[in-house]
């Protein structure tokens, strides 16, 4: 299912099930990288029919922001940055058929950042991730 030209973020592209979250965080095969203030955790898996190749979880800790308004703002920034730039990952995965990614974007700073800076950091992480996928 190619979505490189589509700039949407559908429900199917989100990680919601507890089993998938456990697979991403409790399994030994996941890797992480950071571009402060964002940490990216990813797991390369086999593609399933009818499921997008890239699925994402967005998390902002209550330790970072006590107020839900600020947490929601940061989550909105991370989702928007992913939505606009997910083509980077889809282009790489088209070359490697049968491969899918589970990704978690985690906020690790206790300050708000401008949306443009957040997007730069997410794009940086996505480029680094696509290079790692290419080498594997």
TrEMBL record:
Record key words, sorted: Endonuclease, Hydrolase, Nuclease, RNA-binding, tRNA processing
Family note: Belongs to the RnpA family.
Alphabetically, which GO biological process terms does the record hold?
Answer: tRNA 5'-leader removal
Name of the protein in question: Ribonuclease P protein component
Kindly give the NCBIfam families that the UniProt entry links to this protein: rnpA
Catalytic reaction equation(s): Endonucleolytic cleavage of RNA, removing 5'-extranucleotides from tRNA precursor
Q: Give the Enzyme Commission number.
A: 3.1.26.5
Which stretch is the leader sequence? none
PANTHER family the UniProt entry points to = RIBONUCLEASE P PROTEIN COMPONENT
Pfam families xrefs: Ribonuclease_P
Q: Name one GO molecular function term.
A: ribonuclease P activity
One term under GO cellular component: ribonuclease P complex
The annotated subunit structure for this chain is: Consists of a catalytic RNA component (M1 or rnpB) and a protein subunit.
Q: Which PROSITE patterns match?
A: RIBONUCLEASE_P
What job does this protein perform? RNaseP catalyzes the removal of the 5'-leader sequence from pre-tRNA to produce the mature 5'-terminus. It can also cleave other RNA substrates such as 4.5S RNA. The protein component plays an auxiliary but essential role in vivo by binding to the 5'-leader sequence and broadening the substrate specificity of the ribozyme.
